[in-house]
Amino acid sequence: MWNAVKSIFLALCLLAPQLASAEDILLTLRLADESEHTFTRTDLKNLQKREFSTKTLWTEGEVHFVGVSLSTLLSEFEVVGGAIKAQAANDYAIEIPVSDATKQGPMIAYLLNGKEMSQRDKGPLCIVYPYDANVKYQSEVYYARSIWQLDRIAIQN
Ligand SMILES: Nc1nc2c(c(=O)[nH]1)N[C@H]1C(S)=C(S)[C@@H](COP(=O)(O)O)O[C@H]1N2
Ligand SMILES: [Mo]
Q: What is the pLDDT of residues 72-115, one digit of tens each?
């Protein structure tokens, strides 16, 4: 009996990291020193969670986003100044000043109304600003920074 329990436990221990590494990489972060850090959905979920509801240009009515504050991600890597270049799967790219990444600023969203966003649905990741909470975000500059299908962030020197 104990042997069976032990072997199951051992099997789970051996399997768990493999299952985790089989997960898709959703985001690659390239630092100024050219090192690259990858994030799966689980990695993103393990970072401090942020959420807000807002209307957007591209959704009907108010929607609820869950994700990681850009400020949380950047402070994790001690990025304090300059700009980031955010790139999408469709090769759209936009520069975002690191000064945008305040606590009440943009987030990298991974859930929309509680659901994962499909690529068709502008997912799986997008940068969204709390447009309704701050009218300054209701402008073309911030809409252009609201990159959907985000898959890559490079820290500019
Ligand atoms: N991946 C991706 N994100 C993007 C864009 C794009 O072309 N591709 N356009 C940007 C611009 S210029 C605006 S105004 C907003 C809204 O664009 P939409 O109205 O085409 O959805 O998304 C931004 N995010
Ligand atoms: Mo735009």
A: 999 999 999 999 999 999 989 999 999 999 999 999 999 999 99
- Confirm if 44 and 34 have CB atoms less than 8 A apart: no
**What CATH number was assigned to the domain covering residues 25-156?**
3.90.420.10
Give me ligand 2 centre to Cα 57, in Å.
10
DSSP letters of 97-145?
EGGG--TTS-EEEEEETTEEPPTTTT-S-EEE--TTT-GGGSSHHHHHH
149 touches ligand 1 (CB under 6 Å)? yes
- Domain residue extents for the chain: 25-156
Q: How far is the CA of 144 from the centre of ligand 2 (A)?
A: 5
Q: CA–CA separation, 65 vs 114, rounded Å?
A: 8
Residue closest by Cα to atom 6 of ligand 1: 92
Separation CA 151–CA 89 (nearest Å): 6
- What pTM, to 2 d.p., does this model score? 0.88
Q: Which protein residues have a CB closer than 5 Å to ligand 2 (ion)? A: 144
* Distance from Cα 42 to the centre of ligand 1, integer Å: 26
Which two tokens mark 15? 């399997």
